[in-house]
Amino acid sequence: MTKQELAMQIKHGASPCNCCQAVIRVFQEELGLTEEQAMRLGSAFGGGLGCGKGPCGALCGAEMVLSLADNKNRDVRAASTKILNEFLNQVGALICEDIKDGAAGQALCSCDDCIRYAVSIAEKILS
Predict the structure, then answer these.
(1) Residue (of 10, 30, 27, 31) closest to 19 by Cα position
(2) Does the global pTM surpass 0.90?
(3) Domain positions in the chain
(4) Which residue, 2, 70, 79, 96, is most buried by CB atoms nearer than 10 A?
(5) SS3 55
(6) The pLDDT of residue 51
(7) Residue 76 is inside which H or E element, if any?
(8) DSSP code, position 95
(9) CA distance 101 to 122
(10) Long-range pairs, 23-28, Cβ under 8 A, ≥24
(11) What angle do CA 7, 10, 12 make, to 5 degrees?
């Protein structure tokens, strides 16, 4: 099972969670987090930071994963910028509300796809 598939299983499983939590939980073991810690860490990011007014929760989750990772041999600021830019290129916006409402009320990207993109980008950055 890929990390993207695992994220979908987590997001829509027996104990559904928000986008940020789904991204963090995919990486919880390699980050040394328990499920409870991962869930608590991402709990305030449902609907994006500020309940839609701020960055997408999946994007925030990917940045949190980077921050919690072993970064001894990584330029964290450059990696963070790369996550942000790749997410923007794939999704078309950074703000949750803009992604969900898009142009003329048409969503730019589904929440599930935002999660898949965030997990994929984080996985690539951490490899």
Answers:
(1) 10
(2) yes
(3) 3-126
(4) 96
(5) strand
(6) 73
(7) helix 76-91
(8) B
(9) 25
(10) 23/57, 23/58, 23/61, 23/62, 23/64, 23/65, 23/115, 23/118, 23/119, 23/122, 24/61, 24/64, 24/65, 26/119, 27/3, 27/65, 27/68, 27/69, 27/122, 27/126
(11) 105
Average pLDDT for the chain: 93
Find out whether 68 and 34 touch, Cβ atoms under 8 Å. Answer: no
* Residue 85: partners with Cβ closer than 8 Å, 6 or more residues away: none
Q: Region 85-104: what's the mean pLDDT?
A: 91
Tokens of 14: 């027996």
60 and 52 Cβ atoms separated by less than 8 Å: no
35: tokens are 């499920």
Judge contact between 57 and 48, C-beta under 8 A.
Answer: yes
Which amino acid would we find at residue 58? A
From residue 83, alpha-carbon distances to 16, 17, 65, 76, 94 in Å are: 25, 22, 11, 10, 11
